[in-house]
Automatic annotation (TrEMBL):
Gene Ontology cellular component terms for the protein in this record: plasma membrane
EC number: 2.7.13.3
Organism this protein belongs to: Limnospira indica PCC 8005
Keyword Disulfide bond on entry: no
Record-linked InterPro entries: dCache_1, HAMP_dom, HssS/ArlS-like, Sensor-like_sf
Protein name per its UniProtKB record: histidine kinase
UniProt GO BP: phosphorelay signal transduction system
Catalytic activity: ATP + protein L-histidine = ADP + protein N-phospho-L-histidine
This protein's UniProt keywords: ATP-binding, Cell membrane, Kinase, Membrane, Nucleotide-binding, Phosphoprotein, Transferase, Transmembrane, Transmembrane helix, Two-component regulatory system
Regions crossing the membrane: 208-229
GO MF term set: ATP binding; protein histidine kinase activity
Membrane topology qualifier: Multi-pass membrane protein
Lineage: Bacteria, Bacillati, Cyanobacteriota, Cyanophyceae, Oscillatoriophycideae
Amino acid sequence: MRQDFAFDEQGNRTEQIGTLEQPYDPRQRPWYKAAQAEGKAVWSEIYLSFSTLLPTITASLPVYSLTDSSLIGVCATDFFLPQEVSWFLRNLEIGKTGTAFIMERSGKLVATSTGEPTFKIVGDDRERLLAIASENDAVRSTANYLSDRFNDLSNIQTVEKLDFQWQGERQYVQVVPFRDGNLDWLVVVTIPESDFMSEINASRQKSIGLSFGALIIAIAVGIFTSRWVTRPILRVSHAADELAQGELDQQVKPSPIIEIDRLAKSFNSMAQQLKQSFSALRQSEATNRAIVNTIPDLMIRAKGDGSYLDVVGSDRLEGVDSSGDQFLTSNRLPKAITIQEYLLDNNKQLIKNI
């Protein structure tokens, strides 16, 4: 009779969880025979569990007597492949539709991420499935591709990264040999190109959207910046145009831009100086005009070469126009001659109020 017990974290037996009434001789089980034959820790072949009828693999270790080295028994731990390995593969994130499976060098399935059975029922017996006979199309097509490419799966000794076409789409495959003691398995992962290309395309669309948004923001910032820079320059230009038209009361507002602010200050200083200069010039002109108007004699303004410009006080002349052309026989006068001498020499009595 077989009795099953639960154990705590320290390995102490706690409670009985099952009983098998049928005759049970562990020495006839595959895992016991494997450990006995090897004389060391060993993995058993995959077999159907006596109690659960699930595909199982057992890690077993023979225990020998310290006195005569005789075999005392075998310690073993069972791994139920559908509950342990297949469950682990199903919980892997392999793209969106990727597939993972494990097979032996013989091509027999150990576990898959698809949840399909790795045994088939033939009459009263159960036979293990070959990967090329899998119910899953991805597993079957990948196994066929590997068989055709390498002829014998024993030729795969290193990690292989491959790709092949299936149903009009590229499939990417990675094969990793897994060895542990007498275990020699192949771990195979298959991912359709569309799984990661969809993410790449989505990322590309997102990047295009972000780039377009960044471009719009850059253009808006550029327009704002250009206006922020050119507005004070335009104010200076407008003030300069007004100044050229004679509007001397021009002042440019300060600018937050250092260089333009300096230009504005220089312009304001220049405009102020021009205003003061024109004011002084007008005042000087008024003063000179008042002085000239108080002089009873005629005055001729001439250039340095002796050519005259006009006659100041010509309104005092009788019978001649204001330009003095009627009494000036030449438009060039000696530099040292006065108008009185010129008029007396020509016997012209043209002076008023004498």
